[in-house]
Inverse folding.
């Protein structure tokens, strides 16, 4: 039986770090084991301009533990007023690695997002021309569309037409949650990849809704039926270069999660790599973990993999993680996979 594996240091291609006290509390949970992360720009107010991104990057760097090589990869929040020239300059400076497309109203802090894709075509054309990646939260917001169908409808009505119009635009279909998402990405021969979260490999909608409502499993896109979870597992563990890790670790205080209208987001930064080793081992695919967590993402973003490695070690007894992380704003509950974790980063 494998007791330890050594892999290229992983990266997280979708991470929420927030700001201020929350940033200081959650950043070490990612910086401990990850080399880099794509930093989501959905702050309040959002990170819209290159100036905002530079200032946010500086606040992240100031909050980092002293002994770390962690590098935040910044993004800009796409609005209908985004200036293509500002985006291009930020990319040329090496400041940003992606622009984030939130359909207005789709998720946490997305009000400044895109209402009509026609209003951002000039930015997308510029991005296509310069090779800058578009990260997409792929859910329609039409209240008539069932929340469990919003990803599939987005693919048909927004993503596929966009790819036909701008075939050279590099796109990350973020945190895909459906078989349709997996199949669509597999049907693309170029310029499309998808991130998959840790929690969507582990939970389905029963975990949220059966036997009492579990707010800590509520995130967006919401977890779907078991058949979709299995499709995500197959994609992640296949080694297919189009699929890579984006944890979407999204901290909210317990006070904000446990409300009559609670916030969406699962906080997985603390135990993500243990969860992933468990999942990949269970599927007989430990040898594919490095591709999913450390190699496919950099290839999609046209970056070199990290130069160093981490070792994951399997213990004889359960590894105990904190139930929550304390922040000055209140506790943030760590994702509970619902099974014992035996793998840990050595
Ligand atoms: C994210 C957040 O809290 O910022 N929440 C979530 O459920 N994933 C936003 C997002 O990525 O949709
Ligand atoms: Zn997210």
């Amino acid at each position: 039986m494998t007791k330890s594996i050594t892999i290229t240091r992983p990266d997280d291609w979708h991470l929420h770090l927030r700001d201020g006290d929350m940033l200081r509390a959650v950043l070490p949970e990612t910086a401990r084991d990850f080399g880099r992360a794509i930093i989501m720009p959905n702050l309040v107010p959002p990170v819209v301009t290159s100036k905002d991104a530079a200032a946010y990057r500086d606040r992240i760097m100031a909050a980092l533990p002293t002994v770390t090589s962690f590098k935040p990869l910044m993004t800009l929040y796409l609005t209908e007023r985004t200036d293509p020239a500002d985006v291009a300059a930020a990319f040329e400076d090496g400041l940003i690695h992606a622009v984030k497309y939130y359909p207005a109203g789709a998720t946490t802090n997305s009000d400044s997002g895109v209402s009509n894709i026609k209003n951002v075509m000039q930015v997308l054309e510029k991005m296509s021309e310069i090779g800058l990646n578009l990260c997409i939260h792929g859910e329609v917001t039409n209240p008539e569309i069932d929340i469990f169908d919003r990803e599939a409808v987005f693919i048909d009505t927004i993503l596929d037409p966009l790819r036909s119009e701008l075939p050279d635009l590099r796109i990350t279909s973020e945190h895909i949650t459906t078989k349709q998402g997996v199949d669509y990405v597999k049907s693309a021969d170029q310029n499309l990849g998808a991130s998959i979260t840790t929690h969507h490999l582990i939970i389905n909608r029963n975990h949220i809704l059966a036997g009492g409502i579990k707010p800590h499993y509520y995130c967006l896109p919401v977890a779907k039926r078991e058949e979709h979870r299995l499709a995500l597992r197959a994609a992640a563990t296949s080694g297919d270069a189009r699929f890579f890790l984006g944890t979407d670790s999204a901290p909210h205080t317990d006070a904000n999660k446990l409300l009559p209208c609670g916030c969406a987001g699962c906080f997985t930064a603390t135990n993500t790599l243990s969860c992933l080793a468990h999942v990949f081992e269970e599927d007989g695919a430990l040898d594919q973990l490095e591709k999913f967590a450390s190699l496919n993402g950099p290839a999609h973003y046209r970056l070199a993999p990290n130069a160093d490695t981490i070792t994951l070690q399997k213990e004889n007894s359960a590894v105990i993680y904190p139930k929550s992380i304390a922040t000055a704003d209140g506790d943030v509950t760590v994702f509970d996979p619902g099974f014992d974790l035996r793998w840990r980063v050595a």
The chain has one domain: 4-345. The longest helix spans residues 150-165.
